Amino acid sequence: MTVDRRTADGAIETFNRLAGRWLKAFDGITLYRLSDGDATWYEITSLSTLHDGLEVRHTLFAPTITLEYNRFTGHRARSRLWSLWLGVHLRGRAVRRPALAFQVRLNRSNGLHTQGGDMSERQQEVLLGNEAVARGLVEAGCHVVTSYPGTPSSEILPGVVRFKKELGLNTHVEWSINEKVAYEVALAASYTGKRAAVIMKQVGLNVAADPLMSSAYTGVKGGFIVISCDDPGPHSSQTEQDTRFFAMFAKVPALDPSSPREARDMVQAAFELSERYRIPVILRPALRICHARQNIDFRPVPDLERRAAFEKDPDRWAATPYFRYFLHRELNEKLKAIEAEFEHSELNVRHEGRDNRLGFIAGGASYSILLDTLREIGLDGQFPVLKISTPHPLPQKLVADFIAGCQRVLVLEEPDAVIE
Fold it and tell me: What is the DSSP letter of 64?
């Protein structure tokens, strides 16, 4: 239906009044600002309790102004309240899904229009980075997902459970007794041709090191990805160990996302890479990707029916040391082929600059922070930037060609000097 300008102005006034009242109710507020080039969003978190957290998102470059009127059922007080969004998105952090939504969109030429419907039908949602990874698993048709909980990875498996219930999927999901068991359950599913994923934090990869090292040699059948979430800081871990080094140690490829949206997209890329080369692939979202929030467009979820079919191959699945020698040679050839593919991969992005006296190479969260910083100080597009999303095997020709075109190069990564 059409909404007149007077109604829209009244809604804006209501938003200002409600937002001002809610924000004044909190003590000790911290403000974070993140950007991915398309949008900038803010997160306001009360220092006293997570239930008092608020998320505020402001889209700067959208061609339309979006006004949303939502009813929430709060987890804490079980009370209903109405919130209003206008460019700025304000919602209780503890609430996962609004029960009802009406969208008012102001187009530059078509005037003001309203749409309404259940939130389960929406094709876009602001997701935590870990929830975006969960959405990626579902959209990639993953059959088996296992995990052992540990921050910053803990929200991924519950995200898979949420989408499984909403969509009525037949995905097998389990919390395992430890990371090694989780790895081996998912790996066994991959041996039968199923797509499988195992999730853990970076120190959990130590527990799963034995099957990781062995499965790099034996390879896999169905796509198999290892999601290991790093914790630079550290904020909740015993060490700051860098999973990218573990990928080099185990001789498996690693992908390093720079935003929640890219983390979702890399899940599909990781599965396809794994099935092309029959090799485990590590996806390494770091803390600032896992716990950031971003608009995620929902894609159709495929019905990837695959009958479990284990094919006996004792020279591979039960290889003795003699056959392991040949499997090692095969693994080295796989890595060479993957590196050649990464030289032209769309995951790695080169931005040309006006001044080649200085160039930047960055990956993961460091890349997003770099671009945001250059924009804020008025140097957007001034210097060439090379984004490396495939730290292992590193596309060395791509990197060497970039370095040759710059007088000086600064490498930004965390926490260790893997690319450098």
Answer: S
pLDDT at 330 over 90: yes
Three-state SS across 161-201? HHHHHHHCCCCEEEECCCHHHHHHHHHHHHHCCCCEEEEEE
Residue, of 24 and 319, whose pLDDT is higher: 319
The predicted structure's pLDDT at residue 9: 53
For residue 274, the Cα-to-chain-centroid distance in whole angstroms is 18
For residue 259, what pLDDT is reported?
A: 96
pLDDT in tens, 170-214: 999 999 999 999 999 999 999 999 999 999 999 999 999 999 999
Alpha carbons 387 and 366: distance in angstroms, whole number: 10
Could you tell me whether strands 124-128 and 88-92 are parallel, antiparallel, or unpaired per DSSP bridges?
unpaired
Backbone angles phi, psi at 64, to 5 degrees: -130, 160
Q: Do the bridges between strand 40-46 and strand 29-35 make them parallel or antiparallel, or are there none, so unpaired?
A: antiparallel
Cis previous bond, 280, omega within 30? no
d(CA 365, CA 350) in angstroms, rounded, equals 16
Q: Which two tokens stand for residue 21?
A: 């009242």
- Find, among 75, 282, 267, the residue nearest to 160 by Cα: 267
What does the buried/exposed string (b/e) look like for 113-124 if buried means 16 or more CB atoms within 10 Å of the residue's CB? eeeeeeeeeeee
**Per the structure block, which two tokens stand in for 97?**
């899904």
Rounded to two decimals, the pTM is: 0.72
